[in-house]
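Ticket closed. Logging final result for Acid phosphatase.
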Amino acid sequence: MSLAPLKMKRLALSAGVALAFAVSAPAFADESVPQNDLLNATLWMQKSVEYKGNVLGTFALARIRLDEALADKSWTALPEMQDAAKVSDMPTAIILDCDETILDNNLYEAHLVKDGTDFSPKEWTAYVNSEQTTAMPGAVEFTQYAASKGVKVFYITNRTKEEESATATNMEKLGFPMGGNVDTLLTKGEKEEWGSPKGSRDQLVAKDYRVLLMLGDNFSDFTDDYKGTLEERQAVFEKAQSHWGKDWLVLPNPEYGSFESAPFLSDYKLSADERRKKKIDALDGWTPKN
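Final structure:
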């Protein structure tokens, strides 16, 4: 038998396989997949049960600490603003950050990853105004528990005053207790002196309430001394050692925050590659022996 027909059959089969592969191959087979520093963090925060477990655990601890604080009339999370010997008769309050503390913005973060874009204040405001933000696991239940104990719940956020109305409506729909006749949603720029640092807003609450707990995902939710070098931030952290896990409770957020900008000292004039290089240089790594 001549080998020509067999060769022709093999060629036809090979061509058919190649065509089938070309049709079924994923669209990115011939293209590089864009790299994005947010990918793993966003995937973890949006899809992992480990993240949900971390958040639920933090709010479970918050209930325990709240009960302890209510039983101790000298307990205050802001001793530099309040005299523990004079706060026993004050009404009680807790202070919570919003984004990535009680409000989950992973739809927006995933948009940045999937569309290959960067944070845009204008686009962020459009997202806020869409009122699609969801609640962190356990956040609504914790705030409702605090309110049931007669504790006023304050939300100190760097969402802006222009975003306050949509934020309040979104939070009310989710079930967060709001202030009634007291302004409990304190936004950036709501007063002229209210910039990104939150200390002046903390002080406003501390003037009339015994602050039992502070909850946040960023160092800046607890102190205005959050900026500086990595070493300076570590020193501030150690100075506040008695607060962590007691009256200052931290939610995990590997997506963004002052931790990420500290290695390049918040110098956003640097290119993305220059910022990334400084973050890599800040890491302490193991060196294998030859």
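The chain has one domain: 36-227+240-253. No further action required.
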